Amino acid sequence: MYHLLSVSSAMLISFLIGLLFAAMCAIVGRQKGYSTALCILLGFFGRLICLLILILLPDRMQEQYESDHLKQELSSLRQRMAELEQALEPTPAPEPAAPAADAQAAPPKRPPDAPAVFPARTEEVIACPRCGRHQKGNRDSCYACGLPFQYEHE
């Protein structure tokens, strides 16, 4: 008889401990955004291991909040980019008025194939008059467009 009482009291204590872990798993799982019924079931049968696993699992509620916040920030950035792109759209350039007056004041243009004339060769960086590429001033021609360079002191 004494043996039966100790077995039944051990079963009762085990059942109460299972309920305690089930309640703790339900509380932790609900706070983290997991299914309460599943957490109760796992807590009752898995006890301490399941409680530790639930504590270590990521917080789904926090992840959802961060995801929503990032989506909102992304949409506002996209809207801002669209506004900036609209501001950068080219406007039609005004047509020059009276080109005859400018032609008298401007020096005559050289032909497009005429070589570019520089005072002397140098190790400093110069810009090609045709394409604007920067290069050393000791070259015979532009590496990008092939414009020949001519030097006055040669």
TrEMBL record:
The keyword Transmembrane helix applies. Residues 85-116 are annotated as: Disordered. The chain crosses the membrane at residues 35-57. The keyword Membrane applies. Residues 98-107 have a biased composition (Low complexity). It comes from the Bacteria. Keywords: Membrane, Transmembrane, Transmembrane helix. This is Uncharacterized protein. It comes from Dysosmobacter welbionis.
